[in-house]
């Protein structure tokens, strides 16, 4: 018989016993369906729900008028002052559209009915009349950094300079588990809200503010979550509608959307256009960077559209950059709001600088790898504060870059072999560095709770939650090792606003760095507190007590008190501690990607991939590898063809996987992954964070490889995605002799 | 449409379900039949999360109307026998293949279908077998390794 080894959570996930949001659906739960706007940029001139409300099984039809009657406004948002002095734009997102429709797919009305089908049928029977108005446009927010004058002066004396443009399309998170939720009014007047989220405390806080409830009225729970990647980290309009409707009707209500609905209605990620100029001096040293980004901020540009703005520090990469000038403008559009997607601005910044370095290397006739090596910040220069104000505490970039190149090996023979077969061959390299466990300017705390019972069982509840990372295994192992008890004596709770005082949830590569550190602090506190209690019980000084194997031993005797006895004596034993990092950490890595392009079809195949990351101390190599792997797969998937497309009228053209290209297993080569550990002193574990690292490097490395391959065929200004059609067109436009498609 | 009673054999048990004839098998499985292994990922036959075996062949239960089902349905929930994991489950556990685990049902069921017919498969055949499956967490390599390990175990 096979032992259940490996990840603790896999036992339930691999037998169908996982508990995802929809798994908790009870018989008798009502279902909610939305009427979504069929047009973008419109005014509502009529909304007739009478027929829908009279349909069989319909319990309620709810609109913006009902929200207003209950005093529930739009999702408030504090507009940012613009650095160019222009007017700050405040467009709070309605929970249900009342007067104006910002984007196609926006929720206009909600139907609650006995079955999902009845709710959907009734939603279709609502009569919505609209007239076209100008879609949202113009600048919503604008931020500037650095000195335009100094940058201009430095670029003017550059020996070499190059300008590139990058287009990072909007993408959809496409977590395999669509957003789904069930709201259950409880007998005591509270609301149990089970939802597929990565941040239950954020959802609770935002819902409470939105509905004018005390936060304690809400109990938010997410047990297993089928992927999230930034999308599920906040309250969306649907969450507010569901809790509000359940409260009004006093009945449990589920919202279980289909994939077409989430493709249409989910917030989207990325969506940036960038223009970057780099100037080099005679010794190939970077003199200056000038960059301008336009973010497609959608119809309701809230805080979650600030990804590039908040993470722009990645633009100076691992390099010495004396002067720069950056402008980031958020532009209104008739598209859904933005949400973070793995990396959230970090991949865009890395993609921009690495592409620009490739281009300036080409302009200078120099080796792009050599240019990077020459400009790296040295390990002996740490800590260093960059021109964008990031303080990098430690790192050894040259070592990381050398290790990655060694892991990848010499590409020359592979290039020669592919070219002999008539293929275009590209070799790309990207250095990436990102802030983690922040926000950079003021890192947020996380929390961890330990409860010991009279049997000596320990319940761990960290403020972080897993949406696939395997924290249950990683953090559980940490507790077992520190307390010297068997893993089977440890229970684990997460994703529950009543399991711990507060929590950051999952996001910003903060799980181990912040929550893991809070847990380390809590374990120390438990042992210190236990030593004092044990000393009392043993009638000796705490200094004469030592802890091992789950018990406190009186030195020089065979007397001991175990964890359970202390808990029994105390009538329950709880320790809760928090940890706030002094500053963000900076995981960094070098990714190498090699591609073969078939000039006849335009198909790009990733044939080799190597990456070495410094994520600080590696505590669980398998979980680290999983995170890197997942991030790289996503980064490559985005670069190879993922792209949300709306037509000129704001209609979504990529509404399913028929039109939205997501990576398959056969699109990936074997990945060679390595780590170089440069532990940080910013947390007790020495860890830097790993959740976003793979995604930050991968798209940039792919872009570098594709542009290398295409440059050899005379295409100089190509940017991702490298879908066959776009590559083929670029080759044709460069006059390369390609057969008709 | 009016509801009818359907008899279906799932994981070795014959059960009856009252449903409209066009109700997707997935809903019956996850609802009245309480098989939570198959998952709703897309409802459009595009991801594989809802996969079950019908007479040994993988099908997308999200687009399979219940009235079209005749034969034996096998789900993830029924793979282990008496607490002993199926060799495919054992290999996925050993390789720590899943991350969020939401897609994993599909990969395991496709692997079971392939390997129970013939465990002697090449790497390319494994990749081809998985062509229509999606994983957003990026566990592909671990899944390929696990499937290879399962194949070896089943050959032995
Ligand atoms: S849910 Fe059936 S294929 Fe996606
Ligand atoms: S493990 Fe999460 S989608 Fe595959």
UniProtKB/TrEMBL annotation, chain A:
Instruction: Report whether S-adenosyl-L-methionine shows up as a keyword of the record.
Output: no
Write down the InterPro entries for this protein, in alphabetical order. Ald_Oxase/Xan_DH_a/b, Ald_Oxase/Xan_DH_a/b_sf, Ald_Oxase/xanthine_DH-like, AldOxase/xan_DH_MoCoBD1, AldOxase/xan_DH_MoCoBD2, AldOxase/xan_DH_Mopterin-bd_sf
Q: Which gene encodes it?
A: cutL_3
Q: What Enzyme Commission number(s) does the record list for this chain?
A: 1.2.7.4
Which SUPFAM superfamilies does the UniProt record give? CO dehydrogenase molybdoprotein N-domain-like, Molybdenum cofactor-binding domain
The UniProt record lists the keyword Ribonucleoprotein = no
Tell me where in this chain the Aldehyde oxidase/xanthine dehydrogenase a/b hammerhead domain is found. Answer: 15-134
The UniProt keywords, alphabetically, are: Molybdenum, Oxidoreductase
Can you name this protein?
Carbon monoxide dehydrogenase large chain
GO terms for molecular function, please? anaerobic carbon-monoxide dehydrogenase activity; iron ion binding
Tell me what organism the protein belongs to: Roseivivax jejudonensis
Automatic annotation (TrEMBL), chain B:
Q: What is its EC number?
A: 1.17.2.1
Query: Looking at the keywords, is Iron-sulfur present?
Result: yes
Q: Which Pfam families match?
A: Fer2, Fer2_2
Q: What class of enzyme is it?
A: oxidoreductase
Instruction: Domain (2Fe-2S ferredoxin-type): give its ranges.
Output: 4-79
Matching InterPro entries, A to Z?
Answer: 2Fe-2S-bd (IPR002888), 2Fe-2S-bd_dom_sf (IPR036884), 2Fe-2S_ferredoxin-like_sf (IPR036010), 2Fe-2S_ferredoxin-type (IPR001041), 2Fe2S_fd_BS (IPR006058), Beta-grasp_dom_sf (IPR012675), Diverse_Oxidoreductases (IPR051452)
Q: Which UniProt keyword terms apply here?
A: 2Fe-2S, Iron, Iron-sulfur, Metal-binding, Oxidoreductase
Q: Know the name of this protein?
A: Nicotinate dehydrogenase subunit A
